[in-house]
Amino acid sequence: MHMTVSVAVAGASGYAGGEVLRLLLGHPEVEIGALTAGSNAGELLGPLQPHLVPLAGRRLEATNLETLSGHDVVFLALPHGQSGEIAAQLPDSTVVIDCGADFRLADAAAWEQFYGGSHAGTWPYGLPELPGQREVLAGATRIAVPGCYPTVSTLSLAPAVAEGLVDPDVVVVAASGTSGAGKAAKTHLLGSEIMGNASAYGVGGVHRHTPEITQNLSRLVEGTVRVSFTPLLVPMSRGILATCSAALRGDVSAERAHAVYTRFYVDEPFVHVLPEGQWPQTQSVTGSNAVHLQVTVDAAARRLIAVGAVDNLAKGTGGAAVQCMNLALGLSEGLGLTTVGIAP
Amino acid sequence: MHMTVSVAVAGASGYAGGEVLRLLLGHPEVEIGALTAGSNAGELLGPLQPHLVPLAGRRLEATNLETLSGHDVVFLALPHGQSGEIAAQLPDSTVVIDCGADFRLADAAAWEQFYGGSHAGTWPYGLPELPGQREVLAGATRIAVPGCYPTVSTLSLAPAVAEGLVDPDVVVVAASGTSGAGKAAKTHLLGSEIMGNASAYGVGGVHRHTPEITQNLSRLVEGTVRVSFTPLLVPMSRGILATCSAALRGDVSAERAHAVYTRFYVDEPFVHVLPEGQWPQTQSVTGSNAVHLQVTVDAAARRLIAVGAVDNLAKGTGGAAVQCMNLALGLSEGLGLTTVGIAP
Amino acid sequence: MHMTVSVAVAGASGYAGGEVLRLLLGHPEVEIGALTAGSNAGELLGPLQPHLVPLAGRRLEATNLETLSGHDVVFLALPHGQSGEIAAQLPDSTVVIDCGADFRLADAAAWEQFYGGSHAGTWPYGLPELPGQREVLAGATRIAVPGCYPTVSTLSLAPAVAEGLVDPDVVVVAASGTSGAGKAAKTHLLGSEIMGNASAYGVGGVHRHTPEITQNLSRLVEGTVRVSFTPLLVPMSRGILATCSAALRGDVSAERAHAVYTRFYVDEPFVHVLPEGQWPQTQSVTGSNAVHLQVTVDAAARRLIAVGAVDNLAKGTGGAAVQCMNLALGLSEGLGLTTVGIAP
Amino acid sequence: MHMTVSVAVAGASGYAGGEVLRLLLGHPEVEIGALTAGSNAGELLGPLQPHLVPLAGRRLEATNLETLSGHDVVFLALPHGQSGEIAAQLPDSTVVIDCGADFRLADAAAWEQFYGGSHAGTWPYGLPELPGQREVLAGATRIAVPGCYPTVSTLSLAPAVAEGLVDPDVVVVAASGTSGAGKAAKTHLLGSEIMGNASAYGVGGVHRHTPEITQNLSRLVEGTVRVSFTPLLVPMSRGILATCSAALRGDVSAERAHAVYTRFYVDEPFVHVLPEGQWPQTQSVTGSNAVHLQVTVDAAARRLIAVGAVDNLAKGTGGAAVQCMNLALGLSEGLGLTTVGIAP
Which residues carry out catalysis (chains A, B, C, D) (predicted)? Predict the structure, then answer.
């Protein structure tokens, strides 16, 4: 069977939109239709995304119902708070995949506390690796792509939390490359400020991804999982390395923890629990849809430590978006995606 | 038509071998056979090339006739001087593609001056973008993959030299990422020494790629092109940016130079002469087989300036190797390759 | 008063030795005497430490009693396990400052568990910012310079632990530049492997700095503090950013935590508790002896979060060594040191 | 003799102003007075320049006659085109040192061609290493600090040009860190765009530093030196590495070239012609006022190749500014400056 899926991308000049397009260019069933932007509407894509050579001559259009209509799939890669209005105008039959935060949280109060403005709603959550979630996404026409930090933090802790290896009180420190902060020009994101520099931000539970991690992990247990989340900015363009830990419940050996993780993800094509003793590194997943995980226990500190690596733009955003499109359309889940990273 | 090509890679634990494998994993007609190594023989590939997830469980074998025999294609990604002996043992019908320098130079004296030891011979040179060279490579069973610096330097200057826009006396300053220096542990290549650092090396015409650039450009004219080549090491893993210039022959406008370059490469799938005013950057070609070029003239200085960008490991090594394999076997030249880079 | 202190540095070709020398070159009371090395003995310092221009013509000698004798102060910047033997030969009156780990731990069993070999002994611990420790160092003739991770981890947590704001059960995730791993050539420290990469290592309490952090924090309370310590390697040459947390004991506001930290370090010339809302970054302390700290509480997660930044080579090694020398000799503590970093 | 010089810095929140302040904080004869800014006026310096700890509590004032009056020395670190007006208001007796381009060029037409607007005038040029220039600067009350690229390009080529080793037709390719582009937020300078990327810009003689290099070199000979100048942006915060070449005039050996360079700079405290065979690297000069140079000849290409390294913010801007202040005031030229870089 061969089908051609027509796809529009709103926000095509940003990092998330660029990554969706990079992956779609390698997708065998996709025809790339309208490319839209905000302030860049009217410009050629070439100088804005010079790595997307086959699309260099495409001109960006305005983001509106007219330009986005008539496609099978619309990817929204817009600033937070802008997806709701345009999504409401698109037909129910169009598959709309939102790379932003607007539809991720079920708790409207949490949304309003962390993002401000009113909550647009809640869509099926695009993390098929969570138990039962792949079935939810099959055939869905509205999908909220997870945040990059929540993707790796959730997958790093899910087996431990779900299987009761640890107390529901977790600590996540996640070092991220800068592309997660987007392409808008800001002084603190200048190369001069970033290179040779590591910093923490959003400390104390105020980062917007905190309630999303909490929501994900709390789905796995009765009651609420407490999450202490600290994001770090480190000098690289792509990649997140999440170091996650929680107090052990009783005696758990490193071997058992590893076995639990291995079994939990045994059928997942994109989650790789590394052999014992090999730790994840972000370079290995650059450009790929893979998640690399490792787990051990610190007997003296009585904690389980899990470390996960993803490419924040790929599996953390654009890769997940394409994976969700494949699931929504009933295509093979891995079309246009790879588990092979670019290294060194 | 569908064929399955069985391929062996010698030197699978290094950077060049790893890149060949990364690309082969995305090649639809290839079956990856023996993976061999020197001191790493006997080890699993997983910890050595953690980005090559699908091959993680493969064990490296010794590099010898027995392990390499029985494949349609053998890629040699060995230290300079080691390809000759093993290549001589392989059947003439096996397609042997050497990523090293052993068979690149036609001038044995030059080889011995720059590399030491005796010259192994000269194989068809794997730069299909040179005039007439694609035909040479079709059906070839021995191919020498060009050096990374020569690839970008040659392609950046070829139109100007071949069309007589400049005197045959060129200056190339090429800034390279560190992966071109290989994976052997050396103090001056430590991350601590590389980050925050730019340096020149091999200054004064002593770098081994100098005679190769000279050979390539001199094929385009009568007589010998004089080449001043200075390589720089800059803090990035991948990519070469070559800044090339030569004295103008008479009046040449920037527009004419751009038109000459555009026409020269009009049929080349991997060479992109950018629109006037847009300059190449290495990030745009990361992981891809694309070469980005731009040219202008400096009227006051009376020089033509051409700038080219490649990924030294991709089009500069592994991508060229796969492109050559495709040509040698009569496959579509771009199979397993892309013009889309990974950015940011 | 003016005195001239004659100083020898053993291990002058490495990173720690180089940093001690960099700082000594700006110290007004120091005369740099013998420079010794292991395998580099006999070589000129110039090509090995090209940033130390005034010492470029100095030739490295072998590390032994003869070369090191006759100096007022001897800095040992040797691989772990090599300081004990040479230190034992030096006169008691010579001030010996060990930048290595040999004399840091009081617990011989812990030393042997984490470092192997037999424990050389315990010297006064060169962290004058710990309560009462400045007095111990005044006039001392044997001083163990703290490890880089323990310096920042200890100072980041000491006020919270000592003042009982938190349970004695702490989590430290510390992102480090690569210079802390030293100058010996290793594949995983190559620039190609480091750039674009973040990784965890020594996970699960097995890093050698774990018992040292435990020792430091446990001195501040009754009983033992449990420490979960995970070091990360991120793409920068210098700097450590430590993200530290622990469960709050009762209600503690962010304001109170900040006030406790500010008061704890009020007289410390090199520890800067930043104004509330400003978070430490490693770039700000590059090359300086400063430690930047910030603290807050996460009410939802019921944890105190403290973040500290140091230059691992400066305050984390060489700067602390010079600071300790100043204290040992009764010089002004800040001679040759600065709180001003090099940024951007 | 001890004097206290009161100093104001206009543009204290930018990179150039920050570097002037970093150096002044280590200058024994200086008292830092007014700190002024444009859009940041009214803010505390602490969060804007977090590395300048001793000035963290200082509040920025507006840049005007009132705030800058009453100081012995005023440093202007303003955007190009803004120095002229404020400088005209300051008393002739005030030493005014302009880190911008306004007063560098003697040729008003060149200024207007490259910078636009009207030429503000020409001040003594702050490169004391040029023959006779130190005398010009002694006692001067108006000084134009050279551009960063012109500093290293000029010093790298001056001996060869002045001594007639080469034709007056030079090629400069200079790889720079990003801080030279300033602290204003621009998309193409984001960390995500810079890391893993090398690019050329201002190609074809259009960069503003071209006429300044031409002016400097042409002072050394009769007639005009032709300059082909191409700047590159590479992934580091600080440093410029300039690769310079020109056709040899007759037979010149590498030894003779090296001897000429050594003799030319024999009395210069900040210019270090490295021993033959050792090539400059930017890391070695980070934070220092040193210029590292090396020269050789390429006999086959018949060119002299000189390579120079500076820290663009230090000797390339702030260090030169302080050096010029010292000369203007009759202080020891090296006060507050160092030849020792921070590495690794």
Answer: 148
d(CA C339, CA D51): 8
Count CA atoms closer than 13 A to C222's CA, side-chain side.
0
Q: Which residues of A are catalytic?
A: 148
Closest approach of chain C CAs to the CA of D202, in angstroms? Answer: 23
Dihedral angle of Cα D294, D295, D298, D302, to the nearest 10 degrees: 150
**Contact: C185, B187; criterion CB under 8 Å:** yes
Q: Which residues of B touch A341 (CB under 8 A)?
A: 51, 53
- Please indicate whether, in this complex, the C-beta atoms of A296 and C238 are within 8 angstroms of each other: no
Tokens at residue B81, please?
A: 């001087």
CA separation for the pair D181, D236 (Å, rounded): 12
Residue A1 has pLDDT above 70, yes or no: no
Q: Which of C232, C301, C302 sits opposite A243 (nearest CB)?
A: C232
Please state whether beta strands D240-248 and D303-310 pair in parallel, antiparallel, or not at all (unpaired). Answer: antiparallel
pLDDT > 70? residue D303: yes
Q: Convert the pLDDT of each residue in B81-95 to its tens digit.
A: 999 999 999 999 999
- In chain A, which residues have their Cβ closer than 8 Å to the Cβ of B281? 50
How many Å apart are CA B297 and CA D117, to the nearest integer?
Answer: 26
Residue A2: per-residue pLDDT: 61
The pLDDT tens digits of the residues spanning B110-160 come to 999 999 989 999 999 999 999 999 999 999 999 999 999 999 999 999 999
Indicate which of D234, D256, D292, D312 best probes the interface with B, i.e. most B CBs within 10 Å of its own CB: D234
Helix and strand counts by DSSP (H, E) for chain B = 10, 13
Identity of the residue in A53, A290, A341 whose CB atom sits nearest the CB atom of B290: A53
User: C28 is written with which tokens?
Assistant: 């007004």
Residues B293 and D250: their CA atoms lie apart, in Å, by 35
The residues spanned by each domain of chain D are: 5-145+316-329, 149-310
> Which architecture, in CATH terms, is A5-145+316-329?
3-Layer(aba) Sandwich (3.40)
Whether the complex's predicted ipTM is more than 0.90 is answered with: yes
Nearest Cα of chain C lies from the Cα of A246 at a distance, in angstroms, of 10
Cβ contacts of A280 on chain C, cutoff 8 Å? 199-200
Q: Which two tokens stand for residue B126?
A: 């794997």
CA distances from B29 to B1, B51, B270, B336 (A): 10, 21, 20, 9
DSSP A51: T
Common-topology check for domains C5-145+316-329 and C149-310: no
> For position D3, what pLDDT does the model report?
76
Structure-token match 């940041």, residue found: D40
Sheet of D5-10: strand order equals D61-62, D30-37, D5-10, D73-76, D95-98, D142-144
Find the CB nearest A185 among D181, D187, D237. D187
Closest C-alpha to A271, from A154, A168, A172:
A154
List of chain A residues whose C-beta atoms are within 8 Å of the C-beta of residue D316:
none
Q: Which of the other chains make 3 or more beta carbon contacts under 8 angstroms with chain D?
A: A, B, C
Could you tell me the fold of the domain covering B149-310? Answer: Dihydrodipicolinate Reductase; domain 2 (3.30.360)
Q: Residue B164's CB: how many other CB atoms inside 10 A?
A: 14
Query: Is there a contact between A220 and A156 (Cβ–Cβ < 8 Å)?
Result: no
Residue with tokens 């010998």: B224
Residue B183 is nearest to which of C15, C190, C195, comparing CB atoms?
C190
Which chains form contacts with chain B, at 3 or more CB pairs under 8 Å? Answer: A, C, D
CA-nearest residue to D16 within chain C is: C344
Q: Which residues of A touch C210 (CB under 8 A)?
A: 300
| Chain centroid, CA A72 distance in Å | 22
Q: Which chains touch C (3 or more CB pairs under 8 A)?
A: A, B, D
Q: Which helix (H) or strand (E) holds C223?
A: none
